[in-house]
Amino acid sequence: MNKATIHAFKEPSFDLNGKTILITGGTGSFGRAFFKQILTTSKPKKVIIFSRDEFKQHEMSLSFPRSEYPNVRYFIGDVRDAERLKMAMRGVDYVVHAAALKQVEAAEYNPFECIRTNVFGAENVIRAAIANKVEKVIALSTDKAANPVNLYGASKLASDKILIAGNYLSGASGTRFSIVRYGNVVGSRGSVVEVFRRMIQDGCTRIPITDPMMTRFWITLSQATQFVLSSFDMMAGGEIFVPKIPSIKVTELAEAMAPSVPINLIGIRPGEKLDETMITIEDNRTTSELRDRYIIESSLDLSILSVKERFGDQVKELKNDFAYTSNDNEDWMDADEIRASLHELGMMPKT
User: Fold this and answer.
1) How many C-beta atoms lie closer than 10 Å to residue 173's C-beta?
2) What letter does residue 120 receive in the DSSP assignment?
3) Which of 170, 261, 269, 290 has the most CB within a 10 Å radius?
């Protein structure tokens, strides 16, 4: 295994000054981080936090008070509600669609709710954005949408497909839609880091591992927000942007976080993958490689310049059998690098 190479993503030159940005699911881990990122790097006219949980909006408003952030607006609504979403997008220039039902097990037991939010919600985002002449929309996807084995992944694959098709529906001069795809963000709610950290804080005597061969990609919230911003800068519509990020073994993560706590193998759970896949062999034919990312192009005729036409010599050729998976990655983080990264992120104390 090679030591990890952490790519600094393309520095975005995307100008948000004087613009209005709406974030669906804006009170989630990514939404809060993205909100903070854009307010520290630019001067937008307005940032609209669109979410359905009034308590989370209240908590967020305490962290980002109107006295210090006069250009933030909190808009209670659900992406399932097409009319409410259309109202929220009036005068909006750019949208980040981060709202989704993400828990694999919850989706399996509540399939209709998953579809209503992840699929019908994406349709509502498309219709509202086109109706309000929004300039650009980036939706957050997941590795689970590539060769899905659970309902959550299947719902996000459907969501990705209809969002890409949104470019066709909006016409050549209408709203542009693109996708950003990555795995669980380090330390976000429900991530394996957060699960392990809570167990360790509660004094667990064993760390549960579903399979000793399990691998995952590693991306921080800061990297995720930077990647989305730079993808706004690069998008023409219809692309799926995939970051180049390192892989970890989950056993190495357990060793980094709790070196003295033994591992308990509990078996893989229903709907869980052993490894993360972000680009399949089938996607290979429409994928281009750049220094810091891969770009999967749409097979639809969207009448836009191709990635090769736009980026020229920056594009690298891929092998015919290329697939981007966490178990077959060029870059890996060992326990020491994982520990150092968690220290830097303030997710575990230095020893």
Assistant:
1) 7
2) I
3) 170
User: Which member of 144, 156, 244, 273 is catalytic?
Assistant: 144
CATH number of residue 59's parent domain? 3.40.50.720
pTM of the entire predicted model: 0.93
Q: What is the mean pLDDT of the chain?
A: 91
First to last CA, the chain: 27
Say what the pLDDT of residue 282 is: 92
Tell me how far apart the alpha carbons of residues 314 and 4 are, in angstroms, rounded to a whole number.
22
Torsion angles phi and psi, residue 156, rounded to 5:
-75, -30
| Amino acid making up residue 166 | G
**pLDDT greater than 80 at residue 189:** no
Residue 73, burial from CB neighbour count under 10 angstroms (0-12, 13-18, 19+): middle
Q: How many domains does the chain have?
A: 1
Asked if residues 287 and 300 have their Cβ atoms less than 8 Å apart, the reply is no
- pLDDT by residue (tens digit) across 229-255? 999 999 999 999 999 999 999 999 999
Q: Which domain range does residue 119 map to?
A: 20-183+218-245+277-325
Give the span between the Cα atoms of 98 and 78, in whole angstroms: 12
What is the distance between the alpha carbons of residues 167 and 175, in angstroms, rounded to a whole number? 7
Which stretches within the chain are classed as H helix?
Answer: 29-41, 54-63, 82-88, 104-109, 111-115, 121-131, 151-170, 192-201, 221-234, 250-257, 307-311, 335-344
Identify which of 294, 330, 332, 327 has the alpha carbon closest to the alpha carbon of residue 218.
332
pLDDT in tens, 11-70: 656 789 999 999 999 999 999 999 999 988 899 999 999 999 999 999 999 998 888 889
Asked about 144 being catalytic, the answer comes back as yes
What is the b/e burial string over 34-66, where b = at least 16 CB atoms within 10 angstroms of the residue's CB? bbbbbbeebebebbbbbbbeeebbeebeeebee
Q: Does residue 223 sit within a domain?
A: yes
Q: DSSP 3-state assignment of 249?
A: strand
